[in-house]
Design goal:
Distance between the termini: 45 Å
Strand order of the largest sheet: 3-4-2-5-1-6-7-8
Order of helices and strands: HHHHEHEHHEEHHEHEHEE
Number of domains: 2
CATH superfamily of the largest domain: P-loop containing nucleotide triphosphate hydrolases
Helix content: 40-55%
Radius of gyration: 19 Å
Largest sheet: 8 strands, mixed
Low-confidence stretches: 1-5, 7-12, 18-41, 253-273
CATH architecture of the largest domain: 3-Layer(aba) Sandwich
Number of strands: 8
Strand content: 15-25%
């Protein structure tokens, strides 16, 4: 169980004891919400801070990122985003999932997060999802899309998991079926957003393939970890993509309250070709 989940359980147990002690009548609706939040904390990864602790400074940084992106989306009339990094461990999945939650917090929005990292999928771990099939099975024509979408704790946020591991993800991602999937999501109109979590751009061609299908690309870079020459190389591989910005991740000192779990903070910088 996560530290956040353990803390919540202690608080709930204490409140129940106080209610019994002083004889205060229970509020079924509040108890239902408390139970729901406690279960959610156990299921979701503790890095999904926008869902587990939406009032935290870290969650506020994600909302700031969302605001910048929405400005870009309205200016460029785009609704599909690819989130990638140069190398592993820079926080791209954490960024993609938290961004999806912040978008879905608006009840007028609908959001689909696709785990496009079919080599080392992680999106399902963020939301505590158990699945057997996903994007791979859809691209192979073995299942229809609606049967593969997994609901989350937000009514307007769905996840398409990666599916079973395969040996040729690049070929599947380059297929017309993948292009059509993204076009169909775009055609759903204003208020619907697609976020794709993809592999690091340097290690595979997967992200370079997907970058040509989406409206814009967000590059996640970890502060003091990723060498500048690696970042420049990654950007050069995306020269034909629409780069919306660079998320500078893991800036120490910005949010000391969460440093023991995340030490994440986010800066937004527009990249000019």
């Amino acid at each position: 169980m996560s530290k956040i989940g353990s803390a919540l359980k202690k608080v709930l147990k204490f409140k129940e004891a106080e209610i019994e002690k002083i004889g205060v009548s229970r509020d079924p609706e509040k108890e239902k919400k408390s139970k729901f939040f406690s279960e959610m904390s156990e299921e979701c990864n503790e890095c999904l801070v926008t869902l587990l602790d939406p009032r935290s400074p870290v969650a506020e940084q994600y909302r700031s990122l969302k605001t910048h992106l929405m400005g870009e989306a309205e200016t460029r009339l785009i609704s599909t985003f690819l989130v990638t990094s140069t190398i592993r461990g820079e926080g791209k999945t954490t960024t993609a999932c938290n961004l999806g939650v912040t978008l879905a917090n608006n009840p007028q929005h609908s959001v689909l997060i696709i785990d496009g990292d079919m080599r080392i999928p992680s999106v399902h771990k963020m939301f505590g999802i158990k699945y057997e099939k996903g994007l791979i099975e859809y691209l192979r024509g073995e299942a229809d899309l609606d049967s593969l979408l997994v609901p989350t704790h937000l009514d307007n946020l769905f996840v398409l998991p990666a599916g079973e591991p395969c040996s040729n993800p690049s070929e599947l991602l380059a297929s017309p079926r993948m292009r059509d999937l993204i076009k169909n999501e775009e055609a759903k109109g204003k208020g619907h957003y697609l976020i794709i979590d993809s592999p690091p751009i340097i290690s595979t061609t997967d992200s370079r393939i997907l970058s040509g299908y989406v409206g814009g690309v967000i590059l996640v870079v970890q502060s003091r970890k990723t060498p500048i020459d690696i970042i420049n190389h990654g950007l050069s591989l995306l020269k034909n993509a629409q780069i919306l910005g660079v998320v500078l991740n893991n800036i120490s000192g910005i949010s000391p309250y969460y440093s023991y779990i995340y030490s994440y903070a986010y800066g937004y910088a527009e990249y000019s070709k």
